[in-house]
Sequence to fold (579 residues):
Amino acid sequence: MSRPPHEKTAEARDRRVLELWERLVEVEQRLIPTGLHVFGRAGDTRECADLLRAVASYDRPECGARALNDLIAEGLGLGAYEKLLEDKSEQGWRVRANVDEVLRESIEIFLRDGAGRARLWLHENARVETEDSFKVFELLSGIREQLRTSGELDGLARSLRGEYVEPGPGADIVQNPAVLPTGRNTHAVNPYAVPSHAAYARAERVVGLLLERHRAEHGRVPRTMALVLWGLDNIKTQGEGVAQALWLLGVRPLRDSLNRVTEVEPIPLERLGRPRVDVVMTVSGIFRDLFGATMMLLDKAVRSVAALDEPPEMNPVRANVAERVREGGCTAEEAQLRVFSNAPGSYGTNVNFMVMDSQWESADALGDLFVTRKCFAYGRGPGGRALEGREARGALARALSRVEATYQNVDSFEVGITDVDHYFEYLGGVSKAVEQHARARPAIYLADSLSREASVRTLPEMVRLETRAKTLNPKWYEGMLGHGFRGVAEIESHVTNTFGWSATADAVDGWVYEEVARTYVLDAEMLGRLSSLNPHSARSLVARLLEAEGRGFWEAEASVVEKLRDAFSSLEDRIEGVA
Ligand code: BEZ
Ligand code: MG
Fold:
């Protein structure tokens, strides 16, 4: 029996409200760095609370500490927190919100009254045994102490005097609290240890989500993908991006008698349970410098998959190589090139500079520049000789022409896709190059691999999330404005980085520019603040909005364009001392 219409409507409305709520929680839960770090100065209590809450949400087997939200969920008799994450009903959300609130409160008490009181409070209010929470609060106490006493100024002075600066690992505090105290030299990883067991295990889950997302939207898993791999990210995660590439290909790393990852072994198709994915890897100059052995491993992984006698629909690497050889003018070895970077000694794609300086007419120029900068092949060439960056423009262009989806792993709690210009220069750049060579825009994905709910989002979803969590969020921009001149420059830079996603991937909704204009330019008081703190960045921000309109990324009303033009001229006058 069908339900009466009003009931259906009420149900639909409830579902809609729940979805909206989920979105709001998603924005709220992103760790929003409020303001900039001032060299040598400790963050305030609010920032410290956000950070400690994030740190306390993960198991830390290295110091025997269990995640506080697990302890709380178990104490309250709710079972594993992981299971709560899977329940997407309203009831599930409420239960989870309750656990998160207890966690929040316990951190507040810790910061106000110390670890002892926080542990007692947790025992009384969530039945967490005090001995079970000992280790995690011991860890938090250490972090709090180290956050108060940074060695940054001392480290800088030592290095300027040419003295020894102690080394420490490179990561963010949530990923690895051992990075504290700051102000030390960063030491890297042993490339032969990459990917770690943990990174390989985490990557399986993310790749599963990624392929599932593509299947849901496009009916099947992609046959060929382009991946961006960065050096610092793979240091921080011990090779999670590398492990994702291996999982896509369907291979596992093997360790030799010295525990070094030097070989790979294909996972049989029956065990993999899906087709393999061909991957084109564009790696940063930093990755190339740090992970030479890993580039060889990735190259080996591609070649081992290409050699498997498997049906073409299950092994697109083999099928693509065979097709390329049939086309002629290319050996099988060349047809297997998949690892590309800059020429030796050169870094970056320069796509960011071309966008920031408005030095492009057609977007094809951005894709061409990406290929020009990144078309140097690494791996093994004919006779097994190392290639070490041989120019191979045709090989990269051909490989990109088969790509259906592009992807990058985002692994930092602090730096998102509109915070820096590097995400759009790399992921945007490769996506534009694919669009040109494959004559179709690829699906573009990013994974948030570190939060406990690893999630995969499309680029437009990620741009919306970053816009709401940062660029248009008063908590974020007021934090920036507190830093005066530099803060306005940061706001302008977010707008330009967002614009970079229009230029390279057309991934920004018109409302984003509309709201940026409304927030920063059409609001006279705000424009006044920006122009007195930093008229140069204010002018650039207005110019970028006008450029977005001029290039058709945003259809602004004529009256809005006129107001932007007026604001631009007044800022010019102010800078030139006319007004
Ligand atoms: C890297 O770690 O590879 C990287 C860092 C900054 C910008 C681009 C790449
Ligand atoms: Mg930079």
Q: What stands out?
A: Residues 230-232, 284, 286-287, 422 surround benzoic acid (ligand 1) (CB under 6 Å). Residues 121 and 394 are 65 Å apart (CA to CA).
